[in-house]
Amino acid sequence: MFLERICIATDGSDLAVRAAEMAVQLARSGAGRVVAVSVAQPHFRIPDSGEAAPDAQAAQAEFERARRAAHTHADTVGRIAQLSGVSCDPAIPLASSPGPEIIRVAEEHGCDLIVMGAHGPNDANRLFTGSVAQYVLANSPIPVLLLRDPREATRPDFTEDGMA
C-alpha cells in the first residue's frame, strides 16, 4: 500500500506528539504530505437543576479557548512536519465529539492512513481516550494506526494458561 497522505489526529499530549513524529517519518518515506487534525472541543459544565445556563459571553470565551488549544496542537504537528521537509495541512473542526470529525477530515483530504495516540493528555481530561480511539477504529473506512503508551501495555501471556 502506497501512502500519499497521512492524517495525524492530535490532542497535544506527549503521546500525540510521538505519534506525529512517527507519522511524519512514514510520510517522508512515501506520502510526503500530512494533515494535522485537532478537534476544537469546547467543555461546558451542564448546570444543575435551577442553575442558570452559561451566558453567551462565557460560551464564546470557551469556544475561543478550545480553538486556540486546537490550533496550538495542530501547529506543533506542522512544526514537526516542516523540520522533516513534509508538507502539512492543518484542520481545526469544532465539535463536541472528536471521533466523527477525525474520520470526516481524513476522508475529505483523501488520506490513506490515520495515525493517533491511544490516550489523552491526563487522567482527568482524556481527549483521545479509548472511546475516541475505539470509535475511529470501529468506524473509519481508512486504516488506523494507534500508538499506545508502552507503560500502559500488558505483556502477552504465552503460557498454556494464557492461551486457553
Layout of SSEs?
Blueprint (H helix, E strand, L loop, with lengths): L5 E4 L4 H18 L1 E5 L18 H28 L3 E5 L6 H11 L4 E5 L12 H10 L4 E4 L12 H4 L1
Parallel strand pairs: 1-2, 1-4, 2-3, 4-5
Helix pairs in contact: 1-2, 3-4
Description:
By secondary structure, this protein is an alpha/beta fold. The protein has a single domain, classed as 3-Layer(aba) Sandwich (Rossmann fold), CATH 3.40.50.620. The chain is built from 5 helices and 5 strands, in the order E-H-E-H-E-H-E-H-E-H. It has helices at 14-31, 56-83, 98-108, 130-139, 160-163; strands at residues 6-9, 33-37, 87-91, 113-117, 144-147. Strands 3-2-1-4-5 form a 5-stranded parallel beta sheet, with helices on both faces. The protein starts with 5 loop residues before the first strand and ends with a helix. 34% of the residues are buried.
